[in-house]
Amino acid sequence: MIITRVRLAxxxxxxxxxxNLRGRVFVVGANASGKSNFLDVFRFxxxxxxxxxxxLQQAVSSRGGISKIRCLSARKNPLVEIxxxxxxxxxxxxxxxxxxxIRQENKGKRRIxxxxxxxxxxxxLILDRPAMISEDEADDERLTMTYLExxxxxALFRDVADLFxxxxxxxxxxxxxxxxxxxxxxxxxxxxxxxxxxxxxxxTADRTRKARLNRxxxxxxxxxxxxxxLKDDKDSAGVPHLLLRLKHWRPDAGWQNEEQFSDGTIRLxxxxxxxxxxxxxxxxxxxELSLNDRIVEMLPGLLWKLQSSKGRQAILTTHSLxxxxxxxxxxxxxxxLENGVEGTEIKQASSDPEIVAMMRAGxxxxxxxxxxxxxxxxxxxTL
Amino acid sequence: xxxxxxxxxxxxxxxxxxxxxxxxxKGKPIVSKSYPLSKGWQKDxxxxxxxYIKKSLPAFNAASAxxxxxxxxxxxxxxxxxxxxxxxxxxxxxxxxxxxxxxxxEVEAWLLADRSxxxxxxxxxxxxxxxxxxxxxxxxxxxxxxxxxxRRREIREDLARAPGTRSKTGPFxxxxxxxxxxxxxxxxxxxxxxxxxNRAILALDKI
Lengths: 383, 207
Known about the structure:
The complex is a heterodimer of chains A (383) and B (207). Chain A has 383 residues and is an alpha/beta fold.
């Protein structure tokens, strides 16, 4: 299942959003246009739904409270609304629709409250809180929690909870990964900046891990000219390490661990690993960083294969022309963030007649779209 | 010792085709470097690789004094390839080590020239493929449309444009055809159905 449509109101720098998503989503926009804020919608839903340490209150407080979530250009204490549709394929009738409205009480305990929580299955409303649920009327403390976050209450829409709960986010920062200490920083919940990437690798069951590392090895053989072998290991303190051997790296072929890997190697490993892991929505923050253009231009094809054969959805942000130069990327796959009068607006590139006209004349989506994300007065950038 | 050559191409599929042709050429030249690095280089010269090659041709001509260069471009709809090249070189004399081969229309036509091979690969009847593929106006689009009629779902999804979307080809078009080129394309058959491919093969044999 994939997320086929997103509607937002007052979410961060988006006042109103209503876009369709397909199996591959390329999010483009100027710096600070809100690409990461858009990805954060999916992480927010994940934080509500995830089995361990999830929940609405946690999801809001880990973002610094509702004032950090709601849109600045909105009026005082507005409703933050998120609604997503979930279906087997893009452009079909969704199997589920899930929507919530969140606000903060403006007096008393100033709790974070659900204004509503609604679920549609096959376009039939199956849950409408508080309207349908009499207990909610009697005890408004119940509205500090979603039905989504509880296995008893989400039984009728478990697929939705499972999908949200397993959204994975990859933004590997090689510098953090290299630090030996990073393995000890056990973050409850998510793997922000890939700190726990190595732990994730070593915690995977032996056979699965071996199989994945083998597939990654095959891919690396083509991507890294000097690649020889890859394996994982733990040192005497039990700290996990990945070991890599390069040809020509000393005649006795020493193994290097991740502290010695190049930034590009680490990011490639992280990318490949998360592509093989799980079967759900993958979020990538600028996967092109540190990678050779020649590898970057292959990523859309790789992601397509992942999507078509395994049903995984990939949503990524990018500034890379190489990545978007693949003629197989449809205008419908690209979400363009543009600054409007009130907050950022999002649209599919296919809804822009100028872009469509250029693509019809043979331009790739990158050439047609990316100039719009470039700062217009960059020639005046001085320090 | 096999001779090292550099190549310059318009896209990854042309690169796969040229690499294969060179690997079958008599002298078995070894490809040392491939230009350009990526599409990302071409942002100032238009949507496809043509501008890049045109702009760089004097540079390749100069560098071919050191290492031979083999260049493969699509003629698209330009009238007379030799004239075009002359104009690109401006006033310079073409170095004998600079080999330029031109595919009539697009290199995809050379793949179509292996009629039974491509028909098998795409899982379409061989009768759908014209006897003289160089007459096809837009081979890329032709291939993509053929793929839409494939009996195999994977081919339809990878190579044909998804219904209702705006893109020139399917999402795995180039990679999929690169795979065909490397592993399945039979140039001994293809050269019989494509005069320009045959000329290219003969020229590469001389390197």
